[in-house]
Specification:
This protein is an alpha+beta fold. The chain has 2 domains: 77 residues; 59 residues, no CATH class. Helices cover 50% and strands 21% of the residues. The protein has 3 helices and 6 strands. The chain has a 6-stranded mixed sheet. Strand 1 and strand 2 form a beta hairpin. The termini are close together. The mean pLDDT is 92.
């Protein structure tokens, strides 16, 4: 079980690192687009100048939406106390089943840590909803497959 607790920490930190990296990339893209927009020199063809500025503005706005979504995911993930242990599946638990390992957190999908595959899912996902409040030895059926919960931390 100690190995399972360590896996929870590794998965948590890997997701956190990926979100931080994504935020950094988005911030750089926003800065670059703002720089391009602000340094675009007005040409004799005024419409071309305005179109270029407008395209940069759209790019900035698109990246700002993405930044807000990613920051929200990071904030949600930061609510998890990785030292907390669970008797039932809840937000922040790592669930081992005979059909895979699930980190109940934010829905970002497959997370690879060393040779271990884990799926970061939210409680709002179909599997997350089925797993919620289940305990060790409980069975869950999803898409005609039944799997058993082997461990929860």
């Amino acid at each position: 079980m100690d190995k399972f607790k360590k896996l929870k920490g590794f998965v948590y930190h890997k997701i956190l690192d990926e979100l931080d990296r994504k935020i950094e990339v988005i911030n750089k893209a926003i800065a670059s687009a703002k720089d391009s927009r602000n340094n675009d020199t007005k040409s004799s063809a005024g419409d071309k100048y305005e179109t270029g500025r407008e395209m940069m503005q759209i790019e900035i706005e698109k990246n700002e939406v993405l930044l807000n979504q990613t920051a929200k995911q990071r904030k949600e993930l930061a609510r998890i106390d990785i030292t907390e242990e669970f008797n039932k599946v809840a937000f922040g638990s790592l669930v081992e089943t005979d059909n895979g390992t699930y980190f109940i957190s934010i829905g970002i999908g497959k997370v690879q840590v060393d040779n271990q595959t884990c799926y970061a899912i939210s409680l709002a996902s179909p599997i997350g909803g089925l797993l919620k409040d289940k305990a060790v030895s409980d069975e869950v059926t999803f898409q005609n497959s039944t799997f058993v919960i082997k461990g929860i931390v």
